[in-house]
Backbone:
C-alpha cells in the first residue's frame, strides 16, 4: 500500500468512526474534514487542519492566567481519533509485577489530583529560528503555549498499583492516533525518566493522567478521554489519547523519542543517534502586547506578556525586564499572576518610548538568578527557541 492510500484509509476510518459516533453527522454532509471541527477556530490561527495545528493570537493568549480551551494551542501529528469512552482501556505493562488493564471508571477510583500546569510545544517560536535559517515543520509563533487546570490520577499511584520492578528507569506512553511518517503509520509516543514520574511535589504531581482540562472532559483535540500531563517538560511528552504505558529500563524506541525531539545542528543520522531526547522546556518569555508592527505614540506604553520558568522543581520566575532601547536600559515588569514552578508567569510593564524606538525586548530571570539567553544556537529541527524576544514597533 502506498503512502497516499494509507493516509486516505486513516482519514476514512476516522470519518467512519466519527460518523458512527453520530455527533458530527452534519459536518460530514458539509464535506469538511472532521478533525477541524473539534477546535473553535475562530480564536486560533490554524497552521494546518489535518493534522490539526493551531495557536491563539498573542493578545488573546495573555488575557487569562488559565487559558480557556478555545484559546489553547493544538499540536497533533496525525488524525484526531474519536474514542469510545466506555470500551476504552489503558494498559500498563513492561517491568511491573502486575500488568494492568484499566477502564476509565477504574482509573477514576485512584486518588484524583488537580494541578495547574503550562504546556509548551518544543517548537514554540520556531518561526524565529527560521528567520536565522529556514527550519522545516509548523512555523509556530510565540503562541504554542497554554496554562490549564488538569485533573486525574497521579502516574506514581498507578505505577505503585502495578508494582515497578527494580530495573525500571523509564516510562513510555503511547497514544491511539495514527501518524504517517517516512512511509509508515504508527502511534505517537513519548517517554519520561521514572524518577520524574515519581517526583510528586506539594504543588504538582511528577506526571498526571489527566481526564479533564479546566474542569471539563478533555476535548477530542486535546486528548479525550485520557492524556499525560508532564509539568515542566516539552509538550511532546504529554501524550494525548493515552492507551498504553510501558515501564522499561530505557527510553521509548518510538520515533518521537528516538529521532524527533532532539537538538541537532544539521540532523544527520549519526548526530541524531548520538544525542539524547529533550525533556525539559527551558526558561523563556515573550511580549504579547503590543504586537509586531504596532504604531506607538511617544510616551508611556503598557507592555504585557508571559514568562516560563525552566521546569526545574522549586524554580520559578524572579524577574522580567523590558527594554525599549535595544537592551541599553531595562525596566522591571510587574508580575501580574500567580507564581508557580511549572506555570507561566504573566507580567506587565510601563515603558517610555520615543520616535527613535525601533523595538521592544523582554528577558526573564529565574529564582536561581539564571537569565534567559540573549541569543540561542540555531538547530536543524527548530526546538527550544528561548532567546530574548524582540518585537519591532513603529
Ligand atoms: N498522541 C499524541 N500526543 C501528543 C501529540 C500527538 O501528535 N499525538 N503531540 C504532542 C505535542 S508535540 C504537543 S506540543 C502536545 C500539544 O498538546 P495540545 O494539542 O493539547 O496543546 O501534545 C503532545 N501529545
Ligand atoms: Mo510539540
Residues:
Amino acid at each position: 500500500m502506498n503512502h497516499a492510500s494509507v493516509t486516505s484509509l486513516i482519514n476514512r476510518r476516522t470519518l467512519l468512526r466519527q460518523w458512527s459516533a453520530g455527533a458530527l453527522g452534519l459536518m460530514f454532509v458539509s464535506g469538511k474534514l472532521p478533525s477541524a471541527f473539534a477546535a473553535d477556530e475562530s480564536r486560533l490561527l490554524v497552521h494546518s487542519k489535518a493534522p490539526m495545528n493551531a495557536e491563539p493570537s498573542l493578545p488573546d493568549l495573555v488575557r487569562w492566567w488559565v487559558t480557556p480551551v478555545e484559546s489553547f494551542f493544538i499540536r497533533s501529528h496525525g488524525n484526531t481519533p474519536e474514542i469510545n469512552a466506555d470500551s476504552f482501556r489503558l494498559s500498563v505493562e513492561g517491568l511491573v509485577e502486575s500488568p494492568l488493564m484499566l477502564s476509565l471508571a477504574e482509573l477514576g477510583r485512584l486518588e484524583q489530583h488537580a494541578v495547574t500546569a503550562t504546556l509548551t510545544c518544543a517548537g514554540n517560536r520556531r518561526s524565529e529560528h527560521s528567520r536565522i535559517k529556514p527550519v522545516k515543520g509548523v512555523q509556530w509563533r510565540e503562541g504554542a503555549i497554554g496554562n490549564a487546570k488538569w485533573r486525574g490520577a497521579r502516574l506514581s499511584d498507578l505505577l505503585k498499583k502495578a508494582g515497578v520492578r527494580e530495573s525500571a528507569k523509564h516510562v513510555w506512553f503511547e497514544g491511539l492516533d495514527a501518524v504517517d511518517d517516512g512511509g509508515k503509520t504508527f502511534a505517537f509516543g513519548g517517554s519520561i525518566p521514572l524518577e520524574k514520574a515519581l517526583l510528586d511535589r506539594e504543588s504538582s504531581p511528577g506526571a498526571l493522567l489527566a481526564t479533564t482540562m479546566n474542569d471539563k472532559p478533555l476535548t477530542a483535540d486535546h486528548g479525550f478521554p485520557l492524556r499525560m500531563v508532564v509539568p515542566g517538560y516539552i509538550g511532546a511528552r504529554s501524550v494525548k489519547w493515552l492507551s498504553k504505558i510501558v515501564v522499561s529500563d530505557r527510553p521509548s524506541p518510538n520515533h518521537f523519542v528516538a529521532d524527533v525531539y532532539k537538538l541537532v545542528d544539521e540532523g544527520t543520522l549519526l548526530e541524531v543517534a548520538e544525542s539524547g531526547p529533550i525533556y525539559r522546556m527551558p526558561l523563556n518569555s515573550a511580549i504579547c502586547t503590543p504586537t509586531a508592527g504596532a504604531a506607538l505614540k511617544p510616551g508611556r506604553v503598557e507592555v504585557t506578556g508571559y514568562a516560563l520558568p525552566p521546569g526545574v522543581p522549586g524554580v520559578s520566575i524572579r524577574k522580567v525586564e523590558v527594554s525599549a532601547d535595544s537592551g541599553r536600559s531595562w525596566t522591571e515588569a510587574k508580575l501580574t499572576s500567580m507564581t508557580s514552578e511549572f506555570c507561566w508567569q504573566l507580567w506587565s510593564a510601563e515603558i517610555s518610548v520615543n520616535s527613535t524606538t525601533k523595538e521592544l525586548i523582554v528577558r526573564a530571570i529565574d529564582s536561581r538568578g539564571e537569565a534567559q539567553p540573549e541569543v540561542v544556537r540555531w538547530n536543524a529541527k527548530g526546538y527550544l527557541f528561548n532567546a530574548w524576544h524582540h518585537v519591532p514597533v513603529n
About this structure: Residues 72-77, 119, 121, 175, 177, 188, 222, 235-236, 238-241 surround MTE (ligand 1) (CB under 6 Å). DSSP finds nine helices and 23 strands in the chain. The chain has a mean pLDDT of 90. The chain has two domains: 3-274, 284-392.
